[in-house]
Amino acid sequence: MTKSDQWVLITLSLLLLLHLSVCLLGYLNNKLFAATSFLNLLAALLLTAYWAVREMTVLGIEVTIFITAVYAMASGIKYKWIITIQYIFFGVHLLVLVIAMLLCLLSK
């Protein structure tokens, strides 16, 4: 395993732990909506910066997630549909992290 592969694996592991800890702490503190909205905002911003020169599809999806997270944080917990969308986006980010980690571990 090369040094860059190790860094990618470490980064993905830390992001996975961050997502799982935010999910657990948000659930225990009854702040799951705010925690997932903030994490979606942060993940979308970082992924948008990383993928800005790469794939436009991913960029479009992350911009949509970013706008939705900002709207969710600004509007609060007034709308059930925005809560549902935030949880779906959180799950998508978590699933992508797990898949990326598995791809890193299973390649080579």
Describe the structure.
The longest helix has 27 residues, at 80-106. This protein starts with a helix and ends with a helix. With 108 residues, the protein is mainly α. The chain is 86% helix and 0% strand. Helix 2 (32-51) packs antiparallel against helix 3 (56-75) and helix 2 (32-51) crosses helix 4. It has one domain (3-106).
Low-confidence stretches: none
H and E string: HHHH
If you compute it from the alpha carbons, what radius of gyration comes out, rounded to the nearest whole angstrom? 15 Å
Please provide the count of β strands. Answer: 0
Strand content: under 5%
Structural class: mainly alpha
Tell me the count of domains: 1
What percent of residues adopt helix (DSSP H or I)? over 70%
What sort of overall outline do the alpha carbons produce when their principal axes are compared?
Answer: globular
- Largest sheet: number of strands, sense, barrel closure: none
Amino-to-carboxy terminus distance = 8 Å
State the assembly state of the protein chains.
single chain
Tell me, rounded to a whole number, the average pLDDT: 81
Tell me the number of helical segments per DSSP (H or I, 4 or more residues long): 4
